[in-house]
Give the backbone structure.
Amino acid sequence: MIVNKLRNQFFKLWYWYISTVDKNADIVFMNYGYSNNMRISLKGKDEKNRYSIQLYHHTISPVKLSRKHVLEVGCGRGGGLSYINRYLRPETCTGIDLNNKAVRFCRRYYKEKNISFFQGNAQNIPFEANSFDIVVNVESSHRYPENELFLSEVYRVLKPGGHFMFTDFRDDHKVEKLDYQLSNSNLILESKNDITEHVLEALTIATPERENLIKKLAPKLLHNLSKKFAATVGTPTYNKFLTRKFRYLHYVMRKREIKTGKH
């Protein structure tokens, strides 16, 4: 419990710091990434974020986005939602995040059509019931105090037949609890996959670039903490994935459609 609180406090500090010093938008993703044989086609400016983008691509790829209304809960600095909007062409993309600085950054930085950002709490999503075809949540839920409330809100805002595309990590002894929470969410499980090895591979490949970025943006005093947060090779966080004390999971879930009687 104490470790999780410290992790969350550092995350808040790092979020605040990046929002203050990252004037050139060097950091628009804050996830661990995904690597396998997949090599999705990316435009030049997106290549530097390949592995973080591939995590989003893997998360969302089981469903079609054409004419869909997508909500990302915990959108952070907006890189993932922007990728979804620009490459996968849904009808609309909406992002919410608890951090108001992140929301202000997203509103300034992303000038695309059909994308919008709002401050909002994952445990009290500020939209009406049955508003979205797809809800996306990438590497964010492990910080939520009450996941049951979050899942009930996901169920509420999803349209009947809509999908919840969810990926995150947990301590190995907390996976059973997560599975229990999901099984009691009224959402139907369509698939579950352990993607730890692919996340670990992405962390390994991306370590040199992430360490260079830390040197560029963070004062020397924060280098070791920043490396731990980024899970670069050799850090305790990286080693927990290596030994599978951390497990990274991907779920596809669906809200049951409303059956209508024949007339």
